[in-house]
Amino acid sequence: MLQLCFVRVSFEKDTKIMNAASFTIEREDHTIGNILRMQLHRDPNVHFAGYKLPHPLQYKIIVRIHTASQSSPTQAYTQAINDLDKELENLKQAFEANTFE
């Protein structure tokens, strides 16, 4: 059996700006990009968070994060993903509780 290993997220540190980096997320589009950007904006240590879809025919997004000196882009990214996971789990539980009553 052939198994393919595919890395969905790659990291590139910015060489010109301290505490800035880009995360390329494969096989995602505006849906995840916008949700992740908005979650990053909730973090007081994030100075800038944005994303772009490089080309309509390329199925990937590039998320740019610039943080304060007491944090790192990787920490902000990980925290945003964890917070979104918890938020979506709470939404799912609330939906299921109201649906199956």
UniProtKB/TrEMBL annotation:
One of its GO terms (cellular component) is RNA polymerase II, core complex. Keywords: Coiled coil, DNA-directed RNA polymerase, Nucleus, Transcription. Residues 74-101 form a coiled coil. SUPFAM superfamilies: RBP11-like subunits of RNA polymerase. GO terms for molecular function: DNA binding; DNA-directed RNA polymerase activity; protein dimerization activity. Residues 21-93 form the DNA-directed RNA polymerase RBP11-like dimerisation domain. The keyword Aminoacyl-tRNA synthetase does not apply. GO terms for biological process: transcription by RNA polymerase II. Gene3D superfamilies: RNA polymerase, RBP11-like subunit. InterPro entries: RBP11, RBP11-like, RBP11-like_dimer, RNA_pol_Rpb11_13-16kDa_CS, Rpo11-like. PANTHER family: DNA-DIRECTED RNA POLYMERASE I,II,III, DNA-DIRECTED RNA POLYMERASE II SUBUNIT RPB11. This is DNA-directed RNA polymerase RBP11-like dimerisation domain-containing protein. It comes from Aegilops tauschii subsp. strangulata (Goatgrass). The lineage of its organism: Eukaryota, Viridiplantae, Streptophyta, Embryophyta, Tracheophyta.
